[in-house]
Amino acid sequence: MRKRFGLLGAVLLIANISMSQSLNEFVEQGFEKNDIVRRLPSIDSLIQVAKENSPRLKYFDADAKYWEGRVKVTGRSWLNSIYLDASYGYGVFDNLNNEQIAGDPLASQVLFTLEQSRYNMGVSMKMPLHAIFNRGIEVKTAKAEVERAKYEKEFAIRELEMLVTQRFHEVVRAHRMLLVSSSIVESYKLQALNADKNFTNGIIDITEYTRLQQMLNESLKALEFQKSEYEMALSTLEGIVGIKIEI
User: What is the 3-state secondary structure (H, E, C) of the chain?
Assistant: First the structure.
């Protein structure tokens, strides 16, 4: 009896070693054949697309354009203080004659009347004191807002580059963990098939059989979890770059 169990232990040990080697080889082959890095767009291209589609960067662009416009408006604000007046009249008006216009003291002082049209036009300027003293400050403030919007955009670009890179590697890591989980499930499926035969032939008892079945169930649960992790990582990357990534 002892020899029988000793032989059985040796067989199981050899089988486990062989299965472990096969599992490692299977995983390595899976990494080589299914390396997602080869199928994903490059990080640089994803970053470029993310910049083009980023609502945050578009906001900073619009903000900078707004303040650039404020600089121009503030610089021309003095034009608001210039007024152009014009008037038009038609009727009978009293007029000076030529001698009166020349200042001849002997000229008659009687005005002559004439039916005519008259036009008047003039330019005036009235500027409040606060506009004079605050105009320079307002222009500088608007220019500072333009610079701030540009710096905020540069900072946002760096954050976006780091985020895309991070999410890219999370997708790669989640996919590789998915391959590992798939390999483990396949391994436990083989063990479960052997366990069915060995339990039927009385080689293993119900406790060992149940343990192997439980390990298979746990590996299936882990596989489903890794599927969710991979899909979530890929969905997050797609949300950041703003496009659907076909793999």
Answer: CHHHHHHHHHHHHHHHHHHHHHHHHHHHHHHHHCCHHHCCCCHHHHHHHHHHHCHHHHHHHHHHHHHHHHHHHHHCHHHHHEEEEEEEEEEEEEECCHHHHHCCCCCCCCCEEEEEEEEEEEEEECCCHHHHHHHHHHHHHHHHHHHHHHHHHHHHHHHHHHHHHHHHHHHHHHHHHHHHHHHHHHHHHHHHHHHHHHHHCCCCCHHHHHHHHHHHHHHHHHHHHHHHHHHHHHHHHHHHHCCCCCC
- Residues written for the chain: 247
The tens digit of pLDDT for each residue in 4-40 reads 333 334 434 444 444 445 556 655 665 667 789 889 9
The CA distance from 43 to 66, in Å, is: 32
The string of pLDDT tens digits covering residues 231-247 is 999 999 999 999 999 87
Least confident residue range of 23-27, 30-34, 157-161, 192-196: 23-27
What token pair was written down for 128? 């409040």
Residue at 104: amino acid letter = D
